[in-house]
Write a structure and sequence with these properties.
Length: 155
């Protein structure tokens, strides 16, 4: 969980644990993500996005994406603002040693081991992300290209 995330849904942990208990194939859950990562490695530019979040960028903005039809929606990638896991897998920290693409690469790790990544049905946002108006994108492009190369080598 990022240091600037606040849980506002008092039953969030219970709801996520309930999914893990009822669906053992689900290895990781988040609150926003995409069904299929686009060719650029950008989950937020992908066509089929799921979840909800309140973001504080000097004023609150509610991002309401698609709502899962069932208990959760299986996705390819989640945003790292909050990642809850049912199983422990090694992080690719030798490759992704900075702020960017640790989340998407960990999603790839879980898929490699045959686990689903999911976005729970939320109804309303479960978290506030106080990311502010300016997001640090220093070295982002470097890590995006590193991720795409890393992913291609794994295929």
């Amino acid at each position: 969980m990022h240091q600037d995330v606040m849980i506002i849904h008092h039953m969030m942990l219970y709801n996520m644990l309930e999914i893990f208990l009822n669906f053992p194939k689900v290895g990781m859950l988040g609150v926003v993500g995409c069904e299929q990562l686009n060719d650029q490695g950008l989950w937020w530019d992908s066509p089929s996005r799921f979840g909800k979040i309140l973001e504080d960028k000097d004023y609150y903005v509610m991002s309401v994406l698609q709502e899962p039809a069932g208990h959760y929606q299986s996705v390819e990638a989640i945003d790292g603002l909050i990642m809850m896991t049912q199983y422990d897998l090694e992080w690719e920290s030798s490759v992704f040693d900075d702020w960017h693409f640790y989340d998407i690469s960990q999603c790839e790790q879980f898929k490699t081991y045959g686990y689903d990544i999911g976005i729970p049905q939320q109804g309303y946002p479960w978290v506030i992300h106080e990311c502010g108006p300016i997001i640090n994108m220093e070295r982002y492009e470097e890590y995006r290209l590193k991720f795409l190369d890393w992913k291609e080598q794994r295929l």
